[in-house]
Design brief:
The complex is a heterodimer. Chain A has one domain. Helix content of chain A is 91%, strand content 0%. Chain A has 1 helix and no strands. The longest helix of chain A has 31 residues. Chain A starts with a helix and ends with a helix. Chain B has one domain: Amino acid/polyamine transporter I (Up-down Bundle). Chain B is 76% helix and 0% strand. Chain B has 23 helices and no strands. The chains are: A mainly alpha, B mainly alpha. Chains A and B meet through helix 1 of A and helix 11 and helix 14 of B.
């Protein structure tokens, strides 16, 4: 894979999966507090 | 037990999230997104795509979650509660889901057939000829439907049976439990495809084609419209599903976080699908000595012609990998079809004096019979035109009307206050402007679509075919919406919805 493609792949995956993981963590914390 | 108590409720937050993501993740994530991204700037497309997710997709999810959660009714009830004159829009959206259900089950039915064919290798070398001549036995024109194709009708009945069984068991025992099974299976199946794909020779060429950014495309307005279109069609928004699902949320629910998880989960899945699809297309292109662009396609052609061809060329485990690929289509399709059907069943049982099972029986009989029309020898044409009419016009028109009513007429600030009170993190004023702005983007999309239609009618079909299956469906949806809106509702609906209409704003009352 060329460098540009690798950068785009890593950035987009980090943003989407990372964002999802952060939201999930907040939700799980909420469930624990209930 | 009153209908309100009888409507059902999600048993857990994870159950709701899985169901909402399951509804959003459909066939389009696997067979549409990768192609749209690759042909609109590759990696550069992800910039407008992510902007569209955060400025249109997630804001509309928040809006629809809030309306369904507050009013606790399916979409006709939600709009009737705002103003009785708006109820027809709710029924119009419900009709869209009704017609989508009639052909969506057929595509899942094909996937079941191909799951079987993957093991037998029935499609042979000429996968295109197999699909059109042997399997679908396609006629020469949409006006010649031929007879009922039993090879298609049999799996379609199976799909109806699965959906019926799940919906009959209710929200918690049916929808929630089914999604808790289908969604992990879908993710595992997709990951197997991805791992197999990226370890094939030529996979990197495919991934280069998918991810390499062409930033010059960002100055092309069509690329931005494609990004907004992709987000709009892929999140199940503006055609009754999300509102119906949100109406089963418990009173204390974090609306904003749920919307972010649904939107991000859907798009994350799309990206992984793109890696799976393009690594296999890269392998196929290398095996055939052609460029990736030459084998890149979307929709039915990708799933039922190009992929079987790629599976033929795999170095080993062809049948197993083929079966896993078609399993992903089945799991993604079923989790979406259940939500599509739930939206219609909920609308009927909420308004009329019918139990959930009575509404489900009537819906299954009507939509099931109509779906047999799509299981005829000319059914592919009907599917194509009805899909085009409901998606490119129906959902866009419904979206414009919904966002104008909720964004410009209704007090959107009150919705912002409502969701912020219920949620861990808050949305600012940008959210209000996102909703208003998206309504304008949809208007531009519709105008360009109509303009294009005048110069070149869709798909090269005759005007008669487009009139019968396209315009005909649009007329049925519009007239039907007004008829159902005028019909008298059950006493409970009259009391809950008509008698207590809203004062143009959402009030926060937590029990």
């Amino acid at each position: 894979m060329n460098t540009n493609a690798i950068i785009v792949a890593i950035c987009s995956m980090t943003l989407l999966w990372g964002g999802f993981a952060v939201c999930l963590k907040i939700a799980m914390k909420d469930e624990k507090n209930k | 037990m009153s209908k309100e108590e009888n409507r059902g409720q999600w048993g857990s937050r994870s159950g709701f999230i899985l169901a909402a993501i399951g509804s959003a993740i459909g066939l389009g994530n696997i067979w549409r997104f990768p192609y749209v991204a690759a042909s609109n700037g590759g990696g550069a497309f992800l910039i407008p795509y992510l902007i569209a997710l955060f400025t249109a997709g997630i804001p509309i999810l928040i809006l629809e979650f809030a309306m369904g959660h507050k009013i606790r009714s399916s979409v006709p009830g939600v709009f009737a509660k705002l103003n009785r004159k708006y109820e027809a829009l709710g029924w119009f959206q419900t009709f869209i889901t009704f017609f989508i259900a009639t052909y969506y089950v057929v595509i899942i039915g094909w996937s079941f057939s191909y799951l079987f064919f993957a093991f037998t290798g029935a499609w042979g070398i000429d996968t295109k000829g197999f699909l059109f001549n042997d399997y679908l036995q396609l006629t020469d024109s949409p006006m010649n439907l031929g007879g009922l194709n039993l090879k298609v009708a049999a799996p379609v009945l199976l799909v109806w049976g699965i959906n019926y069984g799940v919906l009959r068991m209710g929200v918690q025992n049916g929808l929630e439990r089914a999604n808790k099974i289908f969604m992990p299976l879908l993710v595992v199946a997709l990951l197997v495809i991805v791992v197999r794909g990226v370890t094939l020779p030529g996979a990197m060429d495919g991934l280069n084609y998918f991810f390499t950014p062409d930033f010059s495309k960002l100055t092309d307005p069509k690329v931005w419209l494609a990004a907004y279109g992709q987000i709009f069609y892929s999140l199940s928004i503006c055609f009754s599903i999300i509102i119906a699902y949100a109406s089963y949320l418990p009173r204390k629910s974090d609306i904003i976080n749920n919307a972010f998880m649904t939107g991000l989960g859907n798009c994350s899945f799309s990206l992984i699908s793109g890696i799976g699809v393009f690594s296999i297309l890269g392998f196929m292109a290398q095996a055939q000595g052609v460029s990736v662009a030459e084998v890149s396609t979307a929709g039915v052609g990708l799933a039922f012609i190009v992929f079987p061809e790629a599976i033929n060329q795999l170095p080993g485990m062809n049948g197993l990998i083929g079966a896993i690929f078609f399993s992903t289509l089945i799991f993604a399709g079923l989790s979406s079809s259940m939500s599509i059907m739930e939206a219609v069943v909920a609308a009927i049982s909420d308004k009329f004096k019918l139990t959930r099972v009575q509404a489900l029986n009537r819906f299954t009989l009507a939509a099931g019979t109509l779906s047999l029309l799509v299981a005829t020898n000319g059914g592919l044409y009907v599917l194509d035109i009805v899909d085009y009419a409901t998606n490119q016009y129906g959902i866009v028109i419904a979206g414009i009307l919904e966002l104008v009513i909720l964004g410009w007429i209704f007090n959107l600030e009150s919705v912002r206050t409502y969701v912020n009170e219920l949620s861990d993190f808050k949305v600012g004023k940008w959210w209000v402007w996102s909703i208003k702005g998206t309504s304008l983007i949809l208007v531009v999309m519709l105008v360009l679509k109509v303009k294009g239609e005048i110069t070149a009618p869709y798909g090269g079909y005759s005007l008669t075919a487009l009139g019968v299956y396209g315009l005909g469906v649009m007329i049925i949806m519009t007239v039907g919406a007004f008829i159902l809106a005028k019909k008298k509702g059950s006493q409970e609906f009259e009391d809950k919805i008509y008698s207590e209409s809203m004062n143009n704003e959402l009030e926060l009352e937590l029990e």
